[in-house]
Amino acid sequence: MDVIRLLGIRDSALSLDEVFAAVGDHAAGGTALFVGTVRDQDHGKPVTRLSYSAHPSAEEQLHRVAEKVAADFPVTALAAVHRVGDLKLGDIAVIVAVACPHRQEAFAASRRLIDDLKAEVPIWKNQLFADGTTEWVGACE
């Protein structure tokens, strides 16, 4: 059975329930879940909204990142979804979840999954600040 249960780049709202259900596994003693949300400031400047864009290869790159995490840790189930499009403050931008036999492994694997997703998957963020200025960020946050 493939441990990569759910991956996606979506232009609609993300579901914690869907991601958590995807990694449910009786062999897992620990499940770690990370949820990234749109915050109201960055670099001390108020953010009013943001937009994510993805390269056409983003899902392929996400799959590659997930495969590396699954190979490096005793993962029993893994899921990762990222939102694209316009998001408001408080919206969920990304969810990753990893199930492993033990909690320490689950924490480490989920940390690697979100860190590698941010560093290697071509998703870009455009932030709109309260003063009307914008900023492109080279990798998702």
UniProtKB/TrEMBL annotation:
It comes from Planomonospora sphaerica. It is an enzyme of class 2 (transferase). InterPro entries: MoaE_sf (IPR036563), Mopterin_biosynth_MoaE (IPR003448). Pathway: Cofactor biosynthesis; molybdopterin biosynthesis. It catalyses: 2 [molybdopterin-synthase sulfur-carrier protein]-C-terminal-Gly-aminoethanethioate + cyclic pyranopterin phosphate + H2O = molybdopterin + 2 [molybdopterin-synthase sulfur-carrier protein]-C-terminal Gly-Gly + 2 H(+). Belongs to the MoaE family. Keywords: Molybdenum cofactor biosynthesis, Transferase. Transmembrane segments: none annotated. This is Molybdopterin synthase catalytic subunit 1. Its EC number is 2.8.1.12. The keyword Thylakoid does not apply. One of its GO terms (biological process) is Mo-molybdopterin cofactor biosynthetic process. It holds the Pfam family MoaE. Converts molybdopterin precursor Z into molybdopterin. This requires the incorporation of two sulfur atoms into precursor Z to generate a dithiolene group. The sulfur is provided by MoaD. GO terms for molecular function: molybdopterin synthase activity. The keyword Acyltransferase does not apply.
